[in-house]
Amino acid sequence: LLKAAGNWQPTGWVTPHYLASPVNFQAFSSQFGYSLCRGLYFSTDQNGSLRYLQQKIPYPVIDVFGMKRLPETIGYVAITGFAQQPPSDVADLVLRAGAHKVVRDGWAGMYFHWFREPARLRDLLRGVKGHGFKFVMPSATMDHRVATS
């Protein structure tokens, strides 16, 4: 569809709510050069139940599926909270961005929902830039060194 709409070539992937199976993540890594997300990794617990863990990392990594992950490190604006996560607003995200400045090659990745007020986005961008972060195209990070998870 993207190619037909103007020769667009997708380069990365965002998994909706980061929920996909290991088989899905393997398929994504074979089709896309990077993913913008928090990593979910699955394991079986001592009772045989399938569980997942979120990998929260402060910089891009190559994951176990061979895909470069550009992580969402500071979260998103969630006024009422979501899925057992506490509420967070712009000030919370800006504070988290500041905490990532202590990490070499720290990354302030975030998500902003389209239905939120534009003023919140403006304040978020100003606050994150105020910590010295620069916004770059995801593809601009592809040649930089990354850690392997």
The count of helical stretches stands at 3
Largest sheet: 5 strands, mixed
Strand residue content = 15-25%
Taken in chain order, the helices and strands follow as EHEEEEEEHEHE
What is the mean pLDDT? Answer: 84
Taking pLDDT < 50 over at least 5 consecutive residues as the criterion, the unreliable ranges are none
Q: Over all CA atoms, what is the radius of gyration?
A: 16 Å
- Domain module count: 2
Strand line-up in the sheet with most strands? 1-2-6-5-9
Could you estimate the helical fraction of the residues in percent? 10-25%
Task: Tally the beta strands.
Answer: 9
Taken from the alpha-carbon principal axes, the silhouette is globular
Secondary structure category: alpha/beta
**Euclidean distance between termini CA atoms:** 33 Å
In words, what does this structure look like?
The chain is α/β, with parallel strands linked by helices. Helices cover about 20% and strands about 20% of the residues. It has 3 helices and 9 strands; from the N terminus they run βαββββββαβαβ. It has helices at about 20-30, 90-100, 120-130; strands spanning about 10-15, 35, 40-45, 50-55, 60, 70, 75, 110, 145-149. A 5-stranded mixed β-sheet has the order 1-2-6-5-9, with no helix packed on it. Strands 3-4 form a two-stranded antiparallel sheet. The model has no long low-confidence stretch (mean pLDDT about 85).
